[in-house]
Amino acid sequence: MGEIDPAFVQEPDHRPKLRTIEVDEIPVIDLSVSEPEKLASEIGKACQKWGFFQVINHGVPLELRNRVEKVAKAFFDLPIEEKRKAKRDELNFTGYHDEEHTKNVRDWKEVFDMLIHDPTILPASPDPDDEETTTYTNKWPENPPEFRETCLEYCREVEKLAFRLLELISVSLGLQADRLSDFFKHQTGMLRLNYYPPCPSPELALGVGRHRDGGALTVLAQDDVGGLQIRRQSDGEWIPIKPIPNAYIINIADNLQVWSNDLYVSAEHRVVVNSQRERFSIPFFFFPSHYVTVKPLEELVNEQNPAKYKEYNWGKFYVNRTGSNYKKLDAENVQIDHFKAPESE
Ligand SMILES: O=C(O)CCC(=O)C(=O)O
Ligand SMILES: [Fe+2]
To answer: Which domain of life does the protein's organism represent (predicted)?
Structure first.
C-alpha cells in the first residue's frame, strides 16, 4: 500500500483477484437474424441467466464508433486544467468529473457525461413531496472541436439500437413489442465516456466498484483492453467479459428487473484496472422519463406470483443516486432492494 491515495483502496473482500482466466461465457447474439421470435427467445434466456449479453450486427456504424472513441481519447489526453473547464458542478451534473465514488470508495477513472436529450427535465430534489423540476442542458468542452457533433450523432444511432432492444425484450416477456416504449417518451438517459488510466496498485483499487445500473438497460462499447467483470448468479464468481471487436455489451438494469418482477436480473458488475494499459469504455444509459412510476408489470403478476416490489418514481430515484455518486456519504445510496415488497423479503 502507500502508492495510491487511501480513498481508492477497496475493503479486502472487494479487491480484485488479478490473474483470472478469460472465459467467454455470456451469450453473443447476432441481431441480423431475421426472425424476431428467435431473437427474443435468445435474449430472454440471457436476461434470466446473466442479465448480460453481447450483440453483433447491431446496426451502429463502425466508422461512427471509431470517431467517438477518437474524440474521447483526444479529450482525456488534454491537460487536466483544460478538462476541468468543462467540470461538473453543484448545479449541473453533466461534463467532466474525476472524483466519482461507488459505494463510498473512489473509482480509478475519469468520466465525461452528457444528456442524450438536451434539455432533460428531472425532479429538482429527491424529496418525495417536492414537485419542482429542473431543466438540465449539456456542458461541452472547446476541444477537440468535433467532440459535440460526434457525440450527438453517436447518441442518435445508439438510441435506435436501445429502442430495438427494448422491443425485443418486451416480446421476450410475452408482451407487445411496444409495451415499454411509452415510458421513454422523455427519456432521461446519459452517454458516458469512461477513461481508466493505468493504476500502480490494481490489486487494491477498482476502475468502478461493484454496482448495478439503475435505469432500464445499458448499451456499452468497450475497447480491446478488458477489465469489465460480472457477478455470476449461480456461484457469485466474478466473470470477465471478453472484448469482441465492434460488439456491444447489453445489460439489464434495475427498472427491467422490477418491470419483469425479478424474472430478469440486473447483475452486479465492476471494472478491474491494470498497471500497463489505459482503457476506454462508452456506456449509453437508457433511462425512462422522470415521471414514470416503476413497478412490476400487471401482465406479469398474479396470485401465484405477486408483485415483488412496491412502486417508485424513476426521477426521484435517479436524482437521489446522482447526488450520492459524487461524494462520500455516511449511508448506502438508494437501491431497488429498498422497494422490495415486505412479503417477498
Ligand atoms: O467500463 C465498463 O466496462 C463498465 C462501466 C460501468 O459499469 C458503468 O459506467 O456503469
Ligand atoms: Fe455499470
So the answer is: Eukaryota
